Each structure stands twice: as C-alpha cells, then as structure tokens.
Amino acid sequence: VQLQASGGGLVQAGGSLRLSCTASGRISSFNVMGWYRQAPGKQRELVATTATGTITNYAESVKGRFTISREYDKNTVYLQMDSLKPEDTAVYYCYFRTLNRRDEYWGQGTLVTVSS
C-alpha cells in the first residue's frame, strides 16, 4: 500500500487547511485510515482516525476543530482543520492499517505551520 498525502502549508492562527491522503495498491476492505502528527522535539501523536463503518476517533486537543472523512470509492481520507492554533504546527502523517492490525503503512508527511 502506498499513501500520497497533500494539503499542508502555512496558515495564520484561526485559519483552515484541508489535508488529503489517497491509498493505492492492495487495499483491504476493512481498514483504518487517519492522521498522526509530530511536532519538533515531540513524539508522534494521533490526530484522528476513521475505520471502515465510519467509526472515528479524535485526539482531545482537536475535537470540535478537526473533522476526518473519507471517500471509500477513491480510497481517500481527508482532514479538515479549522480554528488552527500555533500548537497544531507539526508534520502530519497519513496512516493506514488493516483492521486486524496485521499491516500498517505511513505516508511521507506533510508540514502544517500555523503562525500566531
């Protein structure tokens, strides 16, 4: 499975960005797609994931501001990020795994910078 992410960039605090990630290759029908992020000097952390069947999971820090969605026919997951804060600045990584956790894949990362 290959993951191609896009949509990062520079935005002012309070602004919005939308990330997208498309998976290609041998894709299991039952999977989890989503986003993690890693800020400078910090560990990678979960942002949001969505499993087959629209089960979603968000980090507390982004609840109410970020929305994850997916288009199953395009194997694409989106992350709509609103009301961005400087602490959201990080490299955002697209993530894919099979539901049984047998296989796991990461995208190349896209940088999101939020200026104050």
Your description of this structure?
By secondary structure, the chain is mainly beta. Helix content is 0%, strand content 57%. The chain has no helices and 11 strands. It has strands spanning 2-6, 9-12, 17-24, 31-38, 45-51, 55-58, 66-71, 76-81, 90-98, 104-106, 110-115. A hairpin with a 5-residue loop joins β9 and β10 (104-106). It is globular, with a radius of gyration of 13 Å. The mean pLDDT is 95.
| Beta-strand segment tally | 11
Report the portion of residues in β strands.
over 45%
Order of helices and strands: EEEEEEEEEEE
Major sheet attributes: 7 strands, mixed
Overall helicity: under 10%
Would you identify the regions where 5 or more consecutive residues have pLDDT less than 50? none
- Quote the distance from N terminus to C terminus: 37 Å
What is the overall shape?
Answer: globular
* Rounded radius of gyration (Å): 13 Å
Q: Give the class from helix and strand content and strand pairing.
A: mainly beta
Number of helices: 0
Write the layout of secondary structure elements.
Blueprint: E1 2-6, E2 9-12, E3 17-24, E4 31-38, E5 45-51, E6 55-58, E7 66-71, E8 76-81, E9 90-98, E10 104-106, E11 110-115
What's a concise summary of this model?
This protein has 116 residues and is an all-beta fold.
